[in-house]
Amino acid sequence: MIASSRSVEGIRKFIGLDSLAYLSLEGMVKAMPQASDSFCLACYSGKYPVSNPPEVDKFSLER
User: Fold this and answer.
1) Are residues 12 and 19 in contact, defined by beta-carbon separation less than 8 angstroms?
2) Could you tell me the CA-to-CA distances from 43 to 9, 49, 52 in Å, in that order?
3) pLDDT tens by residue, 5-60
4) 0.85 exceeded by pTM
5) What gap in Å lies between CA 25 and CA 32, rounded to an integer?
6) I need a labelling partner for 25 at 20 to 30 A (CA). Which of 13, 36, 37, 44 fits?
């Protein structure tokens, strides 16, 4: 939630860190002991394992 309104530099300052960096998707998966196909990465990559009708989007239930 902190990242919704702050830049990386803003988050770093807010938390009081010397530095802040994010892992790449590849780096995150490599850091885990499980095989990469053990994870659903759709929230990070945007590549979902199922398709949805074009009229369905993240605002569908709010209409």
Assistant:
1) yes
2) 23, 11, 15
3) 999 999 999 999 999 998 999 999 999 999 888 888 888 888 888 877 777 777 87
4) no
5) 11
6) 13
The answer to whether the CB of 20 falls within 8 A of the CB of 12 is yes
CB atoms within 10 A of CB 8: 12
* Spatial CA neighbour of 29 closest among 20, 21, 37: 37
Tokens standing for residue 7: 């830049």
Burial state string for 22-60 with b = 16 or more CB within 10 A and e = fewer than 16: eeeeeeebeeeeeeeeeeeeeeeeeeeeeeeeeeeeeee
Cβ atoms of residues 51 and 58 within 8 Å: no
